[in-house]
Request: fold
Amino acid sequence: MKKFVSILLLMSLLFTLFASVGHAASTPPKLFLNGKELLSDVEPRIEKGSTLVPLAILSEGLGYEVEWEGGPKKVTVKNDSTVIELIINQTSIRVNGEVKEIDVTPPKLVNWRTMVPVRLVGELLGISFEWKEDVREVHMFEKAEEPKPGTETPETPAVGYITAVNMDEQSIIRISHAGANAPGKPKLLDNPRRLVIDFPYTAFIPQLANTIGTDGQAKITVENNPYLTSYRYSQFSASPLTARLVVDLGDDTGYVLTSGENEFAIALMPLSEVPAQPVDPETPTEPEEPSTPEPSTPPDNSADVYDIVLDAGHGAKDPGAYSKSLNRWEKEFNLSAVLKIKAELEKDKRFRVHLTRKDDTFLELMDRVKFAENVKADLFISVHANSYDNTSVSGVETYYERANSKAFAETMHKYVLAGMGIRDRGVKKAAFKVIKETTMPAILIEAGYLSNASDASALFNTKTQDKLAVEVAKGIKDYLKLK
Amino acid sequence: MKAGKLRVILGVAACTLLLAGCGVNEPGNVAGGSVVSPSPSGAPSESPLPTASPAPTPELLSQEVSVYLTDEQLLEMIERKVTIEFGSEEELLNKTIEALQENEEPNQSLWNGIEILSATLNEGIATIDIKIPDESRLGAPGEMMLIDSLKKTLFQFEFIDGIQLLVQGEQVESLMGHVDLEHPLKKD
Reply:
């Protein structure tokens, strides 16, 4: 049984506004299950004829699995055969994936708590109700289980919701979601050239569903963008429930699909800039993940699989250093470089690469440290680019902080230099948080100075980035003494 | 300067006593007049030089202060000495930060591109609220030296025990995404 008490508490703080909603005037009703009174710290209340109870009654009192997601303000209640999804203040609910309109009071936040209409939920889950007006008591009775052989369906994944679809100035289409399932492999189709991405067991929140027109899709036309002319989304199929995104691509457009926390991102770019080996769209690198190593048998049976964390510095609101000569930001270089290094490393099955960020998201330094610790990384590389007022300063610096990282820094520095082909500013020791507070050998590479025009063009040159990726992969193998 | 009339007077008086006691002030620069109340329109203590006008002159103290720049190759910190005249410790703090922001070619001030929104002093903690324009973001070594240069500069003052560095009012984990920022930064 999942409990989300802390989330509820947090949510309660966020919704203190609701605290002023009036109290029910009359005595609260009492709840009974099979004749036994259910007690709750928050009193049930009756609104417009519906009895609202706190979520805890459903989970602890009735024994259902209850989940709360703060983002979309979504409540999921399930038993073995039925999944009910409700969104705060919405009269559309979803029962086993099918949308239904309800005519009772929708779930709401009252006095800092999530209150749900108990009768609606209970009846859908097979409970019968009796309301005793004189004593103001709600009596619930569990029906005897009727096992229906044959109708037992294989476990359906929980339905997720897409909460927003947007494109930013960097031509990255972002699909924000709450629990949406990872999309299947994107399909690239021709005539007209388009990218089709399906999200299994995924629906749209009502605000988005409302934007879907009579032709079954919502279409956003994009003007003056070389990568695409439009993108559109639709509820492609009701059974199995599938949400679909189609991007109408230009002829020379490639893409990289990445997944972050509650977001999938499709970065559009010239075909020539797509990393050599596309980033695996299936597996978001979650800290708790360490997916079981593929049963690959490297030529040398004794060889371990090494977990390498690549940390693209900065992201989102923290753009990092600025290249005035190119009008580009460090965060773009860092991400591009780690994607290429990842692709290069993954050509070798002995490496399992984890990215702290796969798209333009912001991460605190502590989150990066925790990430590396959680995946039990064998090696940690943070990729950055440098800046200084004096624009003549240029070159590569490699930093380490702990004694167990010095040899790694010294080895890698040679390869980074070879990859970048710019001035050598040496291996240095400094207490940058991500290399200080991690425990595995960890380095921070400052691959060049964005403030220096010549370094900047090298940093943003596709061929240099490719070379850097190859050299970094070689350096890691050298350090690990892998053939 | 938000300080009320009384606070300024008290501050200046306290400062005078303190500095006189330590013998830091240079007698030649201390105006002979008594403590003067500020005019209602502004803070006279901000005027850089004591005026020789017949009007009552604010009492200004003078102190030689070290501020730290970085060399042209971003390799080491360079000390620069400046003489600052001030009426209160808070003013000394503000003027020292101003001096810290000045380049002295070929040496660079890493603070040059940072906007100081406010710098106040309360019970030994200098609270400095800043804004970092995106174009002024530094790399890892620059951020490290940015913080070190501020610490080295401000902790030369006995009256500062800690620096609470805020970015637009917020306690951030890191100024520029490489170094974790203590709240407050403490004297080593």
Residues 462-479 of chain A form the longest helix (18 residues). Chain A touches chain B through 33 residues (CB under 8 Å).
